[in-house]
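mind reviewing both lines:
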Amino acid sequence: MGPEYELVLEYVAAHLPDAPRGQARTLFLEPEIESGFPDVVAVYWHVATARRWNAARAVLTKADVRIAHFLATMGTADLERLRPFYPSRLRDSLERLEAAAVIRKTGAGWRLRSMQDIFAVRRLVAIEAKVSEWQDGLQQAFQNTWFASESFLLLPRLPRVPVLLEEAERFGVGVRVAGQPLDSDGLSPRLAQIPRSYASWLFNEWVWRAEVAE
């Protein structure tokens, strides 16, 4: 266990905000996603929403989740519109999504059900820790903005170089040091609406499978 891992563990144990009423907080340490392994992702999710989901969600694949995000972005789509983007086993994916009550069939094609009913995540916080070489950590934290609502760089102390905060602000990344609560004064990240990408949906599904599904 290296110093950065210890920095992360100490931080999440004491300095993350509690979940608001009606929500829960789940931590993922170094989850594997397409862009790599973020040090920690804190997922705040609405418990009642996730508890209403049926068991069919347990078999959704990454390809299924990609289609769900496509529909969230583009609206109603028929097979002709979907097939160029998802040529492999498209009908199987649509059947699984429909069985899981994520999408519904309409006269014009397939449509996502209400986001309030199918997306339980309310806050998706990515934290990247660096003991040294803050430039690398900042780049990694910036990469995490593709799925997170907020992305932070965590350091043991703030270097005496103003360019760090300038670049972090330009990238939309928040900066915190050891012992500093996440929701405190300091350089805050740019807030993004979620789901940002299909990876945001992955955390939505992982939380349900880890905390709710039997």
About this structure: The radius of gyration is 19 Å. The chain has two domains: 3-48+120-177, 52-117+197-211. The mean pLDDT is 94.
